[in-house]
Every structure is written in C-alpha cells, then in structure tokens.
Design brief:
single chain; about 150 residues; alpha+beta; Arc Repressor Mutant, subunit A; three-stranded antiparallel β-sheet; two-stranded parallel ribbon; 5 helices; globular
C-alpha cells in the first residue's frame, strides 16, 4: 500500500491510500503539517485541481469495493451519478439506489464513505437542510458545495 499526501492551501493535508492505481481510502484535507516530501501522483494532482475550483471528475478512479454489500454498491453507483453542482436528499439517493425507503441506510453509507469526492457524499443533503459531514462538519460540506457552485 502506498500513501500519498497532498497539501491544499486553505484546506490542509489530505491523504490517498492506494494499491497500485486502486484507491483504498481517501482522507480529505484537514489542518496539519504539510508532508515532508511531496510525492507526485496523478490522482493527488486532480484532488488539488478540484480544491482550486476546477471542474475535475473522478468517474474513472478505480475503487476498492470488495467489502461492500449489494445495497452499498448500488448507493456507490448512485453517488457517482450525482453531477457536480447538484444535490440530492438521502431519500432521493436511496431511491436512485433502488431502495426508496432506505434513506437512513443511505445516510449510514455516506457517514462511512471511504472515498469522499470520488463518491461525492457532500452532494447529499437532508430534506431540512445541508445535513452533517462527520468530523469535518457542515461548514466543510458547504465549502465543498460552494466549489461546485451550490449555495446552501
């Protein structure tokens, strides 16, 4: 496994955990010391471009999905289909995954998402507002959506 750290001005340090070209886990940038030695990697460069506000896509990124249940795979596919600049509710995400009454399960999947940005759970909102965004908080979620032209 390779770990690639990338430093995003104004956001912090993110980390990509990779097995070859397959993404195993992604840690979004947060406050921390910049990496001692920069390792160049095409996916890290795309992440940097995303955080600069460029319309970068991640549809072609290979993900480690072997641990997912059929429902989780359906949610992952549905998340990848939510376009940049748009949002869906947890209920809409569940319906897109083929389980219209499974909004809580869809929310649980988003809460444990190992692949933020690639599976863009920041584009999923509560019916009553933006919802949460784990330990990074709702302001982080709003910043991500603002990069994509969505104001909440």
């Amino acid at each position: 496994m390779d770990v690639v750290a990338y430093d995003v001005p104004g956001w912090g340090v993110g980390e990509l955990y990779l097995a070859g070209e397959r993404l195993l886990y992604h840690e979004l940038p947060r406050a921390g010391a910049p990496p001692e030695q920069a390792v160049e990697h095409p996916l890290a460069e795309r992440m940097l471009r995303y955080f600069r506000g460029e319309p970068v896509g991640f549809d072609d990124v290979q993900l480690d999905l072997g641990w997912m249940t059929p429902f989780q795979l359906a949610v992952a596919e549905a998340l990848r289909a939510v376009p940049r600049g748009e949002v869906v509710t947890y209920g809409e995400l569940a319906a897109l995954a083929g389980r219209p009454n499974a909004q809580r399960a869809a929310g649980t999947f988003c809460a444990g998402n190992r692949f933020p940005l690639v599976l863009p759970c920041h584009r999923v909102v509560s019916a009553a507002g933006p919802g949460t965004y784990g330990s990074l908080g709702v302001d982080y979620k709003r910043r991500l959506l603002a990069l994509e032209g969505v104001g909440l």
